């Protein structure tokens, strides 16, 4: 009587440890595990579809393998190159920890294990945020029509006015587009845009802030509670309050 024993096949991949940044594209594949061994990172838990995916194949130093009866075979080859590595495995989201700075409300440098950078974007998105010089902003608001201001919100940010909504005011300044709670400078985006949700969860888990990014990859927190309707009266009251504070200081 013939044997019907099923041979189990697993898929592994290996890359140089120096290419860890390229794992950003698979960071959200939470079923994967990593092991660091002798200058190489091993990836465990890949399906047959994933081992052949563009996300894996696009990693510069990637090597793809399958395992059978404890032996390690290069993908597509019939002869093994050795035994399956005996490694200590760590879930990918623990192995690649996004070491972002502690929460504060100023611009500051980021020092992550995977570099988080702002780079020129392939496409320009519609601007919904506008950082405007304070004096220029106040002068314009004094003569602006109520209808023109009606769809907009605003707040004070680092001595400037920050306006959100559409259409934006016809004034010079820095403009921003929005994705989730992130406000990016017009014409720029995260280099690793696939990590947007992961980074937001790390630095804004309660979604209580808008995160304003600068082109040098620094960012600032803006409380969503700080916005108010843009009206001549709201600006006048803020001018009066700031003037009073300056007199006391």
Average pLDDT number: 83
Q: What share of residues is helical?
A: 10-25%
Termini separation: 95 Å
β-strand number: 17
- Classify the secondary structure makeup into a structural class: alpha+beta
Features:
alpha+beta, 2 domains, eight-stranded mixed sheet, seven-stranded antiparallel sheet, 17 strands
Care to describe what's here?
This protein has 249 residues and is α+β, with helices and mostly antiparallel strands. It folds into two domains: 10-95; 118-248, no CATH class. It is 20% helix and 30% strand. It is built from seven helices and 17 strands. It has helices spanning 48-51, 54-57, 92-95, 134-141, 146-149, 196-203, 232-248; strands spanning 10-16, 33-37, 40-46, 63-68, 71-74, 82-83, 90-91, 118-120, 129-132, 153-157, 160-164, 174-179, 182-185, 188-190, 209-213, 219-223, 228-229. The strands form three sheets. An eight-stranded mixed β-sheet has the order 16-15-13-12-9-11-10-17. The chain starts with 9 loop residues before the first strand and ends with a helix. The model is unreliable at 98-112 (pLDDT under 50).
